[in-house]
Amino acid sequence: AILGKKDAKVTIVEFSDYQCHFCEKFWSETLPQVKKDYIDAGKVRLIYRDFPLGFHPNAQKAAEAAECAGEQGGDVVYFKMHDKIFGNQQAIDVDSLKKYAQELKLDTAKFNTCLDSGAMAEEVKKDQTEGSSYGVGGTPAFFINGKLISGAQPYAAFKQVIDAEIAL
To answer: Among 15, 29, 109, 130, which residue has the least CB neighbours within 10 Å?
Structure first.
C-alpha cells in the first residue's frame, strides 16, 4: 500500500508489525509530522510492508485484515484499516478486526471471508520474506531511498535523511 504521490522523489519503505509497540509509536508520534511536511507536500511516498513478528499472536491476522480492506477499496481503504488497527492496538483480535471493517463500512461478508480463509496470508508472507532478504530482523525498519533507519526514531532522524535525499 502506498501513501502519497507515486512519483515522489523520496520513497520510504516501512516494514512494520501491527502489534509492535515501537511501530505504534512511529505511527502516532513521527508519521503525522512526516505526512504533514513531506507526504502531503508530494515530496515523499510511504510504502507500507507487513513484517509480523512470530511472538505477536495477533500481528499476522491484523496484517491480513489491512490487506483484505485494501482489496475492497485500494490504498485509501488499506490505510483507513491501518490507522484503525494502530489506533486500537490493544484490541486487534479477529473479532475486533471484523468490527473495524464494519465501522469502515466495508462489505463485511467479503471481508470476513477474506480474513477467515487466510486469502492474504501469502501476501503478508511475501512482504516478510522480502524484508528478511534486505536484512530486516525487527520492527519498525525503514528504507529511505534505500538507506536503513532502524527502530522508532524521532522525526528529526527522518527529516535529516529525507532532506538530504531531496537535495540530491
So the answer is: 109
CA distance 168 to 156: 19
Between the alpha carbon of residue 22 and those of residues 25, 28, 79, 150, the distances in Å are 5, 10, 18, 11
* Amino acid identity for residue 31 in this structure: L
**Apex 31 CA angle, 25 and 35, nearest 5:** 170
**Can you give the pLDDT of all 168 residues of the chain as single tens digits?**
999 999 999 999 999 999 999 999 999 999 999 999 999 999 999 999 999 999 999 999 999 999 999 999 999 999 999 999 999 999 999 999 999 999 999 999 999 999 999 999 999 999 999 999 999 999 999 999 999 999 989 999 999 999 999 998
CA 53 to CA 47: how far, in whole Å? 19
What letter does residue 89 receive in the DSSP assignment? T
CA separation for the pair 141, 23 (Å, rounded): 9
- Residue 158's closest CA among 76, 2, 39, 42? 39
Q: What is the pTM of this model?
A: 0.95
Strands 10-16 and 44-50: parallel
Q: Report residue 11 CA to chain centroid gap.
A: 14
